UniProtKB/TrEMBL annotation:
SMART domains the UniProt entry points to: EGF, FA58C, LamG
InterPro entries: ConA-like_dom_sf, EGF, FA58C, Fibrinogen-like_C, Fibrinogen_a/b/g_C_dom, Galactose-bd-like_sf, Laminin_G, Neurexin-related_CASP
Family: Belongs to the neurexin family.
Pfam families in the record: F5_F8_type_C (PF00754), Laminin_G_2 (PF02210)
Name this polypeptide is given: Contactin associated protein-like 5a
Residue span, Fibrinogen C-terminal domain: 543-596
Domain EGF-like as annotated: residue spans: 507-544, 903-947
UniProt entry tagged with the keyword Transmembrane helix: yes
Record domain Laminin G: where: 136-321, 328-505, 753-919, 967-1131
PROSITE patterns xrefs: EGF_3, FA58C_2, FA58C_3, FIBRINOGEN_C_2, LAM_G_DOMAIN
GO cellular component, one term: membrane
Residue ranges constituting the F5/8 type C domain according to the UniProt record: 1-130
Amino acid sequence: WVPAQNKDYIVRFSLPDDPSGAGGWSPLVTDSQPWFQLDLRDRMEVTAVATQGRYDSSDWVSSYMLLYSDTGRAWKQYRQEDGRLPGNMNSEAVVQNKLSHSIRTRFLRLLPLDWNPSGWLGLRVEVYGCGYKSDVADFDGRSSLLYRFNQKSMSTVKDVVSLRFKSRQAEGVLLHGEGQRGDYITLELHRGRLALYLNLDERDDPRLRSSGGRSVAVSLGSLLDDQHWHSVLIERFNKQVNLTVDSHTQHFRTKGEGDSLEVDYELSFGGIPLPGKPGTFIRKNFHGCIENLYYNGINIIDLAKRRKPQIYSVGNVTFSCSQPQLVATTFVSSSASFLSLPATAAAAGSEEAGFSLRFQFRTWNADGLLLSVRLAPEPQRVELQISGSRLRLTLHTSAQQKSQVSTGHNVNDGLWHSVTLDTRDQQISLTLDDEAASAIEPWQQLQAQGDFYLGGCPSEGCGHPTPAAFQGCMRLIHINGVLMNLLHVQQGSLGRYHALQFDTCGIRDRCLPNYCEHGGQCSQTWSAFRCDCSGTGHTGATCHNALYEPSCEAYKLTGSSSGYYSIDPDGSGPLGPARVYCNMTGELAVWTVLDHSSSAPVRVQGSSPQKPYIMRFNYSASPEQLRAIVTGSEQCQQEVVYRCRKSRLFNIKDGTPMSWWLDQAGERRTYWGGFLPGVQQCSCGLQENCQDMNYFCNCDAATNSWSNDTGVLSYKDHLPVSQIVIGDTNRTGSEAVYRVGALRCYGDKSTWNAASFYQESSYLHFPTLQAELGSDISFYFKTSAPSGVFLENLGLKDFIRVELSSPSAVAFSFDVGNGPAVLTVKSHVPLNDRQWHYVRAERGVQEASLQVDQLPLRFLEAPADAHVRLQLNSQLFVGGTASRQRGFLGCIRTLAINGVHFNLEERARMTPGGSSSLCHNRGRCIEKSSGYVCDCSQSAYGGPSCREEVSVSFDSESSVTYTFQEPFSVMQNRSSQASSVSRESSRARENVAFSFLTSQRPAMLLSVSTFSQQYIAVILATNGSLQIWYHLLADQDPDVFVPIRQNLADGRLHKIRIHREAKDVYVQVNLVATRHCRDPVHREVREAGLRGFVGCLSSVQFNHLAPLKVALLHRGSSLLSIRGALEESNCVALAESATSHSLLGKGPLESPASSRRSARTERGACSGRFSPSEAHPEVPGAAFPGVPRREQERGCGTCWRASEGAREGGREGAGLPGMPQREGE
C-alpha cells in the first residue's frame, strides 16, 4: 500500500496487478482538472511507471502527462516523444512505461489526458527505481568554492569535469581556472545557455578574459534557469573536447597551439574571485545548487563538507539546497487562455489614486496580449501587449483616439523579463527589465474599473476586440506591491482563469535539438518552429531539399545549355552546392569543369629539394564536394603542363623524385600522366617517344633548351591535384614553367543505374533505412503493370512504403507512431504506359510531401507535439516487399535516399533470380526519346543488352595486338633504386575476364607486357593446366599461380576471371573461385609462347577495355595490329558442337576453323561506340622483355599469338615474356 495525495484528499489504493482488495484513485466528477500526486519521501531515481485502472470497474486512464518536482512546487513535464505516456485500455491490465532517461525527484504528478469515454478516471500506480544520494552545495550568488593545487600550477592533457546544477538565474559562472601563459577554462551560464570557454596556449589579451570579450568555443543547452536539475559533462583529451548538457553532446577542437591545459594555483567553482580582494568577483556569480561535482575524479563538495585544506570557501556556501517559492503559471492557448484578478485586490490597503502592476513573463511568441484593464471614467482602457517582439502600451481614450509607447527589443527570446506598469503620479509609466521608463501622460487621473485581465480577455470581460492571447509563462504578479497567490487562484478562492497550468512553466525550446539542416537558422513560436533556409542552397520546412541539380548531366536533361551552374552532388546530404562550369557542347559527354586558384602559367626559379617551391590549389568546391563529384562521375582528368630548362623531375642517378604533386588525400604522387598510377615516368616515357631515349622524362635530360613534359592525369581516385612541389631550379640557367589545368569530369554514374523486376516475388534488399527524423526518396520507374510496391521498410509498428496503388496513382504511406498517414498523387493519364516517370517522397518532422512528374505537389502536415521518430528494424526492400507479395514489375533507376545513390545494378548482380540490371556486363544504360539503349563500348559483350558474346577464332596464322595509350597499375617501375623513394599508397590492381575453347597444349591465351620487362601471361601448360604468370619486379623471378591442374585443353568452353589486388590474386574458373599464392613452375611459358594459340576466344575484358571487340568492330584502328585471317565465331556453339561430336563417339575438336561458318551469328548492334582516349598518339606493336630498350617496340600491348605470327620479328611480331627476342622466335 502506498499513500498518495490528490489536492486535499489522502487515499490508499492497491498495487498494480494485486486484486486482493478493491481500490484505486478516482476523482470527483465535478473536478475539472484532476491530477494524482505521489510523495516518495526522499529524492529517488525513477526509471519506470506502471498503471492500472480502478479495480473491477470501468474507470481507467488511457493517456497521461507525467510531471516531477523536488519540492512539490515548480513542476516540470517529463517529455518522451509527444509528451504523453500511454495508459490503459481496461481496468486490470498493467501498462508499464520505461523512461528513456531516468529522473531524480521526490514528487511525481500524473495528469490524466484521456480516459474511458464510457466510464470515468481510475488509477492504480507503481513506480520503479532506486535510491539516490548526492553531495549538494548551495551558492547564494555571492559565494564560491576554491580548489587549490598542491603545486603552483597544474598541467593536464586530459580532464573530466562532471556536475549537476539547478539555477534561479540565467547568468552565472560555474567553473573557472586560468594560467599565466594564457590558458583558461570557464563554464558559465549565459542567457539560459551553457557556454564553455577553453584555450590552450593561445596568446590573447588578458583584458578580454576578464571582461568576457573572448570568443565562445561552444554553447549548448537552453532554458537552463528553470529551477530544475541539469547534468553537465566535460571531457577533454589534448585538443579534442566533448561537452554534454543533459542528453545533447557537442564535439569540437579547442584553440591554441598546446595540448595541455595549464592552470595556476586554483580552480574556482561558483564564481571568479578577484585576486587580493576577498568577496569581490569579476563576473556574475552562480545562484543556485550544484551536486556531485567531480574534477578529474575528485569530489569537490565532499572535500568542502569535510573542511579539507584543499578547499577554501568564499562567502556563504551551505550544503543543502534551499527551496524556491516561485510559483509560475502557463498560458497554453493563444485564443482562450486568461487570468482575471479583481480590481478590489488592487485597491486593498491603498488610498493612493491609480494603480501599479508588476510581473515577469517569458515566451517565444512575437505577439500576444499581456494585460487589459478597463478604466474610469469609461470608455477608457489600457492594453499592454507584445507586438512585433516589442512591448507596446496603448491608452484608449475613445473608440477613435489612443496614445501608444513601445519599449524593448526581442522580448520573445524565451528569457524571463520583468515589467512594471504604474498609473500614479498623473502618468502611465512602463518599465522593462533595467531599461529607462517610457511614459504616457493622460489628461486626467486614471482608476482601474472591473477586473485585471492578464494573458487574454474573454469577450464578456472586455466587450471589444482584443489582440491574440499570450502564450507563455508568468510569475511574481504584484498588484499595488501585493504578491498574488496563484495557488489560491488554482483553488478557486481568488479570481478566475481558463486554459492555464499552475505551478509549472511549460515553455520548451523547439530549436533544441535543431532540426534545421544545412545551416538553416531555427526560430520558434510557443507551438512550432520554422527554418530560414536563406543562403543554404536548400529549401523545404527543414532546409532538407536541394535547390540545385546533382550534376551537369542532370541540367542537360532539363534542356539547359553550357554555362556556370551550382550543383549539389549529394542532393539532400550534408554537403552544400558547388559552383562549376557545365560544358554541354559535345554530342555524348557533358563535362563538369572546376577551376582553382592558380590556373595561369607559373615560372619557378631558385628551388631545391631542400627548399622546394610549393603551390597549393584552392578549388571552387570543398574537398568533400570534390570527392563527391569525382566519385559520382564516370571519368575525370586534369592536365599538367610542365616546361623546363635544366630542371629535372627525377634524379637520374638513383631515381629520387625532385618534383612531385599531391593528390586529393595529400599523398605524394610521382607519375605525370595516365589513368592508373604508374611508374615514375612522364607521358613521353609511357609512349616511348622521349627526346633522349635514355630517360623517362624529357626534362631529365637537363638540356639548355626548353623541353616539355605535359601529361594528362586521369586516375579518378587521385584527382584533383591539391599541391605541386618543384625542387630543381636552383642551378645556373635552370627554370621551369608549369600550369595545372582545371579538373574536368563527365558522366553521372547514378543517372542510368537501373534494375528490372520481372516477377512479383522479386526484390532487391539493402540495409535498414536510416530515417528516424526525416528522409527523401527519389527514383524513376517504367512499367506496364497496374500496381506494385516500389519500396518498403518495416519496423515493429512503424513503416514506410512507396507504391503504385493503381494504374494512375502513386501512394506514399508511413507510420511513426501516430497512426498510418497516406499521401496519394493521381494522374489524369495512366502511369503504366512503359514510359519513365519521376517520383519523390519526403517525410520530415513538420510535413510530408509526394511529387510525381510535374503533377501538383501534395503536402501533409505532421500533427503538433506528436511522435516524430521513425523506428525501423528490417531490411529495405526495393521492387518488392518482405512478404514477397504485390511486388513491382518493371524498371527502377536513379534511386537516391537522403542524397545517397543506391547501386541497383551491383545489387541486382548479387541477388539470385527475379531482378537484373537493364544493361549487362558493364554496359551503360542511355535514355532515348522512345526508351533506352545500352552502350556496350566498355563491355566485352554486344547486343541490345550487352549479353551477346563477341568471339574470334584463331588459327596458326592469326594474331591480335592491342596497344594501350596509357599505363595501368601492373606496369609499375619497382626497381631496387626507385622502390626506396617511391611510397605511393595506391594498390595496384587489374581485372581480366575471357572465355576460351581449344584442344592445343601448351597454348598462350593472353599476355600483357611493357618495355621494362614486366608482364602478365595466362597460358595452358603442357599438361593443359591453367597458369598465370606475373613478372612485376625486374630483379626477381616471376610469380606463377596454378588455380586448377586439370586439363582445360579439352575442346570445351571455359570461363576465366582474374582479379589482382596488390599481392593477392583471385581466380574463378568455370564459376569456381580460389585465392592463390606463388607456385614454383618453370619454363612452361616459353613453350606456350612457342606454340601460340589455336582455338576460340570470347568476351575478352581487361580492366575497362575489350580488345577483341575492337578488333572486330574497328579493324582500321591504329591501335590494332592484326595478322592473319580473323573470323567472328561463336565459342558457345563450338563447345556445343564439340560435345555433340563426343557423344557420337567422334574425336575431339581439332580446330574451330572447321565449324566457323556454321557457328557464325550476326553481331547485335550496340548503341554508342568504342572511343579510346585521344590524349596520346597510338604506337603499334608490342613490348618485348629482355630486349634492349632502344630496340623494343614502344607501348604496352595485349597479345594473342601463334608461333608463325611471331617469326616476323620485333615490331610486327609477338614478344614472349621471360625470354630474349631471338629465343622467342
